[in-house]
Amino acid sequence: MENRTARLTILIDPQKKKIFEEICAAKDLTSSQVVRRLVRQYIIDNAGNRELPEWLKPQGRGDD
């Protein structure tokens, strides 16, 4: 599993950010949790022939 963290800074339209945060809150998730899920899924979907570490391979995980 990941053992270090790195900051990812993005710029987003304030209206989209507000809606995104409202939806996250309604699902009792932080925006960081949702972004980590999106990034993980993007990597899995687009890795091509790249070998992924075991902790990143699709397993139907529900945690972050």
Write structural notes for this entry.
The chain is mainly alpha-helical. It has a domain of 40 residues. Helices cover 45% and strands 0% of the residues. It is built from two helices and no strands. The chain is elongated, with a radius of gyration of 14 Å. The mean pLDDT is 88.
Question: What does this entry show, briefly?
Answer:
With 64 residues, this protein is mostly helical.
Query: So how many helices?
Result: 2
Q: What average pLDDT do the residues reach? A: 88
Task: Give unreliable regions as ranges.
Answer: none
- Cα-based radius of gyration, to the nearest Å: 14 Å
Name the beta content range: under 5%
Residue share in helices? Answer: 40-55%
